[in-house]
Amino acid sequence: MADFDIVALGEPLVELNQTSQGQLQYLQGFGGDTSNAVIAAARQGARCAYLTRVGDDTFGAQFLALWQAEGVDTSGVEVDASAHTGLYFVQHGPDGHAFSYLRRGSAASLMTPASLAGGQIERARFLHVSGISLAISTSACDTVFAAMARARASGVEVSLDSNLRLRLWPLDRARATLREALRHATLFLPSMDDMQHLTGNDDPERTLDWIRDAGATGVVVLKLGKDGSIIDDGKTRTPVAALRVDAVDATGAGDCFAGSLLARRCQGDDWADAVRYANVAAALSTLGYGAVNPLPRAEQVLAKLKG
Fold it and tell me: I need a surface site. Which of 194, 253, 283, 293 has the fewest CB within 10 A?
């Protein structure tokens, strides 16, 4: 039996989230896509570990305390005395939320394949990685590919979230790198917004065709935001409706979806039930400010599903 259900790899970022439009008031929280996802998974009852690097600073110490409080194993977290923990701001406006980052030279961006030597990946059921970690630096990109290779060699499933951030890299490089990465994934979790940039079209069916033509062989779950999701298992395509809510802040909703989906798969759900659960969890995560604080716990999601 695996020691962990989910091991995630990536970059944690301290979050300063604007709490109201027109006012310079910010709520400190925690972010970073794969960190959000692994905390969401832990809140659904999954056994989780995180692989990253943080600075030897107050924010790094806060992250370690956060993960430990959430029950996420931190034996694979390295502390770098010469680099800082990354930071970002979230502003909210009529067109949605906008991000400003202070991440250049962060401890996590300096990760290398040597950071994977602890053996956590080989003792997991799923490895979860993302397009952001592929983009933040050359060494981080190398680390993600090395992690996927370790996972596949050990029979561990690989979950890849597209999480395209064009501020981090040119579109052509992003497209080429993600095309290569999705070939190594047993589960690919793209958003329709990301795929519009990568494919140039806004049709879900054509997008799924593009993903298959690009070399995806595992399950693909295309996230459509308020329109739900589509599961493509290589044979059939199944739409799953979203839960409609009056969202306050969508920061981290896709990460909540990923972590919740993986947790439910590890608990035995079929794909349709796992995606339905993840849709509800993601919707509930938009009802508060910040990426981590609003992440729901299993009892909240189950109560909403029953209701």
Answer: 293
